Amino acid sequence: MTEKTIRHVAIIMDGNGRWAERHGLPKIEGHRRGANQVSVILEAARDAKIDFLTLYAFSTENWKRSKQEVAALMKLMEEFLDEKIPELMEKNIRLRAIGRLGDLPAGVRGKLLRAIEATADNTAGTLIFALSYGGRAEIVDGVNRYLEAAWKSGKKPEKLTEESFRNCLYAPDVPDPELMIRTSGELRISNFLLWQLSYSEFYVTDTLWPDFGKEEFAEALAAYRKRERRFGGRLK
Ligand code: IPE
Ligand code: IPE
Ligand code: MG
Questions:
Q1: Protein residue whose Cα sits closest to atom 8 of ligand 2
Q2: Backbone phi, psi, residue 204, to 5°
Q3: How many domains does the chain have?
Q4: What range defines the domain where residue 208 resides?
Q5: How many angstroms is it from 14 CA to the middle of ligand 2?
Q6: 216 Cβ partners below 8 Å, 6+ apart?
Q7: What is the distance between the alpha carbons of residues 50 and 52, in angstroms, rounded to a whole number?
Q8: For the CA of 57, the nearest atom of ligand 2
Q9: Ligand 1 centre from 7 Cα, in Å?
Q10: Does any domain span residue 151?
């Protein structure tokens, strides 16, 4: 059998807080280390010829965190965008984002949109940040956009199918992830890509995100390649 191709890997980058706690450092230091790790895994994904890497950076629920923590996370995102765009250009990587981007502070949103535009023609791979992202929000936003378009056209909306509903997603052209990785051991989906993960393989590791390196990323890919995907069908 040929090697299973992996086009899309999605990661719940969890454990920055625990990493900081274990090192006796402030939580924000954990987030900083976590942000640094993004470049490492981006490179590993590129080496593995993965077309799409989706990183859960901030959930719709994460707004419930303290003002200070939210502000620190937004600042780290801005810094990432300032520092890494030349690197993305050099590596020919396209940046995209999914989520309620309108909820982001203007500074982050502006930089994000500029970076998305600047990298739009890059072709060596796509990094997708899930920012102010929630799986339920994505479904609800998509349906509301659909209804609004129908309302504006003055026609009764057509019944949706699984295929046509895909167009309601934030990034309909992106294939579903074959593999979803969650660091830090939690056995839950935390409102990530609810529609898209329906048949993805999960790899959960106790490693905290700031410690999750290239070797373990390769291990996750190897574990995926050993999986038997059935999609509900019967075995021969
Ligand atoms: C993940 O780290 C980063 C975000 C959710 C933004 P956490 O801050 O959730 O780390 P833990 O889960 O407390 O260790
Ligand atoms: C999920 O992690 C969100 C991100 C990694 C951005 P959380 O730490 O917010 O998830 P829960 O609270 O453990 O479910
Ligand atoms: Mg967490």
A1: 14
A2: -110, 130
A3: 1
A4: 8-135+175-225
A5: 6
A6: 205, 207
A7: 6
A8: 6
A9: 26
A10: no
Pocket test for ligand 1, best of 11, 12, 16 (most atoms within 8 A of CB): 16
Residue 34 CB contacts under 8 Å (≥ 6 apart), including other chains:
13, 15, 16, 19, 209, 210
- Which residues' Cβ are closer than 6 Å to ligand 1? 13-18, 58, 62, 73, 184
Q: How far is the CA of 163 from the centre of ligand 1 (A)?
A: 34
The stretches of the chain forming alpha helices (DSSP H) are: 16-22, 27-47, 67-90, 106-118, 135-153, 162-166, 214-226
For 87-104, write each residue's pLDDT tens digit: 999 999 999 999 999 999
- Answer whether residue 2 is part of any domain: no
Question: Over the stretch 44-79, which tens digit does the pLDDT of each residue have?
Answer: 999 999 999 999 999 999 999 999 999 999 999 999
Residue whose token pair is 């909820």: 103
pLDDT of residue 234: 73
Q: Is residue 59 part of a domain?
A: yes
Which residue, judged by its Cα, is nearest atom 11 of ligand 2?
A: 190
Q: Is the CB of 56 under 6 A from ligand 2?
A: yes
Provide the annotated active-site residues.
Answer: 14, 62
Q: Tokens 């579903």 map to which residue?
A: 176
* Whether the Cβ atoms of residue 46 and residue 125 lie closer than 8 Å to each other: yes
Distance between Cα 17 and ligand 1 center (Å): 5
Residue 3 is assigned to a structural domain of this protein = no
Residue 1 binned pLDDT confidence (cut-offs 50, 70, 90): very low
CATH number at residue 12: 3.40.1180.10
Residue carrying the six token digits 């949109």: 113
